[in-house]
Design brief:
By secondary structure, the protein is of the alpha+beta class. About 20% of the residues lie in helices and about 25% in strands. The protein starts with about 50 loop residues before the first strand and ends with a helix.
Amino acid sequence: MKKYFSLLLMLIAISIGVAPDVNAELPPGSNIGGGVTSSFVACGNGSVMCWSTEPRINRGRVQAIRITMVDNTGKILPGTKSVDFFKYDDAASRDTYAALAGRSDINFYADKSYKNQLVPRSNNRDKPFTSGNYLSAHGANIVRLEQNAFPVFNGASSNVLKPYFLKVASKKEGLFDSFFKPTILAKLGYDYDANLAAARTNPDLFKNQALLIEPLVYFRLSSMRGGNLNWTRGYFGTVTEVAKMMSSTVSKDPGYTGSDVYFDMITPNTTYRGIHFNGDTAFNKDYPLAIYATQSKGGLTGIQAWVDQNWSNYSAEILTFNGVAAGHVWLNELFCPAPASITNDDLPACCTELVAGDKVNSTNYQKCCPELLAAGKLNSTHLPACCSVLPKSDPLYQAKCTPPKTVDKCDWKIDISCPDNCSNTTKGEVKDIDNWDCIFNSQNASRANIRTHYYEWSNQYCKMFCREEVNYQLPQSGFTVLAGHHFTVGFDRSDSWRPIRFEGTSECRTTSDTKKIKYEQFQRDYDAIDRTLPGLWNAYQKELVLDKSRNSASRASRKNCDYYCDDNVKGITCCSKADRDWDDCKYGSPNTCVGGYVDGKYDRCKSTKNTCRGGWDPWYCVKDDTPYDHGYWMTPPSSTLGDYGPYRERGWCTTNGSGNEPRKPSSGSAAAYSRYISAKNRRDALVDDIKKCNDWERNYDHFLPTVFLDYTEQMYDLYGIELEERVDETVYTDYYYGNSFRRNSYRRTLDTHKYECSGNRRCKDASITYPANDNIRQYVIREVKYELPANTYRYVSKPGGVSSNTRPAGQYIDLGYSNLPVHFSRLPGKYDISLEYTTFGRNHKFNKYVFDGVSFSGNYRDAVRCSTLYDCQYRVAEEIFNCKGSQCKNVNVVFRPISLSNPFPGENAPTGGRAPGENWRWYVSKITRNRGLSDPERIFFDRRPMYEITLNTQSILAIRNHNRNTSGGYSDFNLTCITGTGKECKSSFIRTKFRSLFNTSLCGMSNTWNQCDREDGI
């Protein structure tokens, strides 16, 4: 059934800022760019056409742009593509994006277009558009900017977008490598490195390449005319695309004679003709002028003079090549020019290109020291200005780089002290400034590294900044180890080379533009969302009841020729496929022109023909119109669910009674739930934000230097031992309200209302408690001590004396702790021992300023390069014997040698030699003439032993048990001597308790004292 309406909506002017009544005509400027009057207007049941610039009511306008890489003629650069970038760095933009994602009824171009492609096309058949969910259809070419996004640009002053790109895309701002190159250029398919190489030989390359930027816009027309008839039409795309879609049509509504400019027609084959706007059109100032072409280049006509002189409506220019709703950012405005064109104002951002092109001179080299060094072109003429990048070991550094002391300023700096002497300077120190006003203002610094040095994170209620101090203590040189002994490292022992200790202190504080956590703003934001939840929950529950009603619908009529699912048609006898048509004579002209020849000339309206096919009432059958199928009415019952209802879904017509036809009302419960849960999540996210401002704890695990130890020990070939860490960490937080604070618990909290919604019940009142401190100060103190890994050379095998990390087979000694052995064959002298630490831990912010010689402030005089090697010495002293040559091989015992012919050498030397003790003073001959030998050294060859014992498992166990159970242990000699003389002493241990273990045939076992003398022939 066709119903033709003639709709002409004339707009009359009213004062700007007054919201139109839902049934009133809309004023000029109440459109997509008209400021406060462009908010959504709910349509009433009258003859009203209205529009919205928001994906859903109360959601805000989409903030998105399309970027295309074009050349100086306006053609897309080969290998690149158009990409849409959505602002996604605040709650409002994320919410609007979610709302757009929920719309599946939007018209858009199937292939992304940019202005130069779309303007010359005559109609939409040249580049067809489709409908559906825009974000799903173009998902591969959509980027959400969660950081560094452009500002809100609609409703703002003109030319908002270009300054944004000039700021964030320029190398001079420090965001080029971290953001612009990977997030913008790479997504567009633009190979920056290849084009940079080409630009060094083609100075005009970047002058002829540009980012073409176009705002993206959502626009919806809608109408409600009473009864059950609703109509909407949505669009999404660039401003030019939306204007093109709205102005393109295959056929006009019959009888329409209005202006043919765009916006006059909506889309083909709809039952409503387009809407013609008198005065300002639906696109006014701020979207087209958020970006515009400033010069006639790249396929667009520059309008700078027009902007300066004629601040007015530019809608008439959207579908022309004039530079509204699209503008360029030329790459030579962002990137470094060719080397010959680089000036000092381009430095140091353009140093790489300057050095590569050999254009460094006496006026600019000071800004390009790192690039000169990296290219191998730094020489003495660049010193001392470039001393900061030279290693201290470089001869040029010694000759040219003794920087004068400078007076410290109240500025951003790092204090560094290096431990470079194992006798005196054994401590190191690295400190951030402790001026918190400077720290809080660091994001305003001109140097990018300072802007990010102290800043940790931020949300809408606070910012977090941190400063650090690192102190470390290393051991001294000069300790002594006896050959054949060992020493340990880091352990708390007297024979340990220690301390090896690093301590990091992190202090973090909150601030904001109000100098405190914005808990008042949180309360306002929270209340604004919380109070909407009951309404959203009720709307969702109503949709659930309507689902229940719809799913319980019953057939209310039987299918026959007398029922047409139309209350206006009753009692008409028709054929089974009756054709019906509403009288088109009531509205509009019933006459159409009939062409013909008059006096030999063709007249398109020679005569007229009446097209009326009936009267106003009753309806009647016709045979030349669209067939109308008979069908059933489906009637839903009134339903109730929990606290909600009764609600009844409206009925619908169906041809087979299944209820699955498109005319069946679709369920709105999923969308309603999405609206509720989205609001709830946004409310809960606010709570997370205010709690993070109070509860965030810095993860300081990255402060964990890796320390390696080397020491000289050829016997074991030891080097590169990674020391083991023992970590002790203390964390505490001071919560401030005013000038008072409480440690590790909130100084102040507040309660606020909270709606809790569940089941099929109304939302309940509840409450939450949230922190309302002014500021926090959090401290993390992390101490790391270093020692040898567990079991390092802990075990010593017997009798070979070889140290090992694991228990050896056979007999061994367990020293009980890790150690480093010093072989008994080590000659006396000094030997190297060193520590190496190259960082303060993974990705630690101090690393490059301490170890790499990078200047924090940009002043080479502030640059320090601490050595990563702490090189010391230790002394080995001889204790055992002075072996030479082959004597040192295969020695498996530790002993003290004595000369039997000269037991006390140097006894009579002038300076005093080795004098015998009282026990030997008068009995030296007992050694030199032992057992009657004139050559005492022959005792091992010419005399039999006095005692001989056979040891086995049983005998060893017996002796050990005796010693364990005897007072004095191994000192139990029990000698029996001639009273008062100390002569002829005999051991009861040998002769009585363990006599069976000894060879009784030897002279020492005889009870006659002089048996050995007689045996020796004395």
